[in-house]
Amino acid sequence: MALPKTLSEIWITLENQRLMATRSQQDITNHITAPDKVCLQSKTLKVVSSGIVKDQFFRDIEPVKHRPQCVKLECIPGKAAARVQFIVTGTGDFSVTYDSVKGGFLEKTSATVTTDKY
User: Fold this and answer.
1) How far is C-alpha 72 from the geometric centre of its chain's CA atoms?
2) What is the number of domains present in the chain?
3) What whole-number distance in Å separates Cα of residue 6 and Cα of residue 72?
4) Mean pLDDT throughout 77-94?
5) In what order do the strands lie in the sheet with 80-89?
6) Can you name the residues that pair with 81 across neighbouring β-strands?
7) Does a structural domain hold residue 1?
């Protein structure tokens, strides 16, 4: 299904190249540490919706119910990847931050989002 011209999709793939997961199962079960967090920030873009992509074909997405600009991940398993989708309105630059207890903190600034659709 195609989005209207006023909306744009941003896909983020986070890859864990290490053998260890970003959180242990004991951390997750007992809520010892905070979950991994992926946030999209921009002065000109507004996040309308976001979610965790559950399958490799980007068809099954678990939506975030509150605060769509930040997505909480249980963990990223070792030698695996997690995918996140943001649906935004507006144009302009944005940055994505990833914060994890074991995975560390990462911030990337991306190219400009435009409303040009092919």
Assistant:
1) 8
2) 1
3) 26
4) 93
5) 7-16, 80-89, 46-53, 61-63
6) 15
7) no
